[in-house]
Amino acid sequence: MNQQHGALLALAHVVEPGDHHMGRLVDQFGAQAVVERIRAGAVPDRRIEGMQARLARFERTEALDALEPAQARLIFRDDVEWPSQLDDLGPARPYVLWIIGSASLRLAALRSVAVVGARASTHYGDRVAREWCGQLSDQGWCVVSGGAYGIDAAAHLGVLSAGGVTACILASGVDVAYPRAHASLFARIADTGLLVSESPIGTQARRQRFLTRNRIIAALTRGTVVIEAALRSGTTSTANAAHALNRPVLAVPGSVESPLSAGCHQLIREQQAVIATDWRDIPELLGGEDVISVEGTGPVSRPTDGLTSTQRLVLDAVPLRAWATLEELIYASGLSARELLASLGVLCAEGFVTQEGNSWRAARV
């Protein structure tokens, strides 16, 4: 780990997520300089004592050692897997992300949609979330949500039932199941999708971090779909964050007598959201109508569509859960070393494969 990454990791332990003031200092002076200013008490911030206390307790070795037991990895701002759309958050963008899951966050986010809604959802809302997210998953979309009760859980389950990829953005550490009743759901998501957090391993969920993580859900995706939301809820805060980022927002209407649809109706009335009455409205607005047929039988765009046949052959030969040497890949693919290295260079640059020394491992696409 280089010094820049070490400083960003320290800041992720020290600074509250979404802090614009500290983010601007990092953009102006660099992460290493800001860490030293915090240590010296030279940051004009009323929370400096708390940040100094956190910094004094931070141990880089402990933070890195915690990754393996949690089966987690780190993604830094300059890594290939970092989704560049998070940089639209400006000073409020995360310093680092903790990830559990073999899928590639950057590739999954290329064709992703946020689906959020009320925790105390109705049967109507749950059914819409499950069915729509299952259909979107069948069409190659990654559904992003927050893992909460209600609409969030229904959205994740709709994708899992379709065998697709879903990403759960947590307000706790990636190893902390919150709510606890969703521990099995999070395990299922990690098997085929992604658990994502900007909070260190072991961090318990806090009320404010539910609101700050909503900006990540909004920024990571092409657009946000709201299925049931009360007025002034955390769900509408995600929609507001998406609107501020000029991301499309869609809202599903409900009964005029239901307070759980009042937030959706307000978003539509104030023209902050487009009404959605069918799952096909989502890819149409977000730019995926060219790969969607009305009957759902048309061709589906995949991240690997741009690869050559040789590159696909190499990608098939690279294992997901283990590192493979060049000799092992020559045996597995039947290609020459020259052909392999040429294709591996492209696959690494595009984020399909990661390299560590003279070994390679694939990301799920």
Summarize the structure.
Helices cover 45% and strands 13% of the residues.
Major beta-sheet overview: 9 strands, mixed
Kindly give the count of domains.
Answer: 3
Which CATH-level-2 architecture of the largest domain? 3-Layer(aba) Sandwich
Tally of helical segments: 17
Tell me the β content. Answer: 5-15%
Total strand segments: 12
Topology pattern, helix = H, strand = E:
HHHHHHEEHEHEHEHEHEHEHEHHEHHEE
Low-confidence stretches: 289-300
Arrangement of strands in the largest sheet:
1-2-6-5-4-3-7-8-9
- What sort of overall outline do the alpha carbons produce when their principal axes are compared? globular
Give the N-terminus to C-terminus distance in angstroms.
26 Å
Q: What secondary-structure arrangement, pairings included, does this model have?
A:
Elements: H1 3-14, H2 20-29, H3 31-40, H4 48-57, H5 60-65, H6 67-70, E1 72-76, E2 96-100, H7 105-110, E3 112-117, H8 123-138, E4 142-145, H9 151-161, E5 166-169, H10 183-192, E6 194-197, H11 207-220, E7 224-227, H12 234-244, E8 249-252, H13 262-269, E9 274-275, H14 281-286, H15 309-317, E10 324-325, H16 326-333, H17 337-349, E11 353-356, E12 359-362
Parallel strand pairs: 3-4, 3-7, 4-5, 5-6, 7-8, 8-9
Antiparallel strand pairs: 1-2, 2-6, 10-12, 11-12
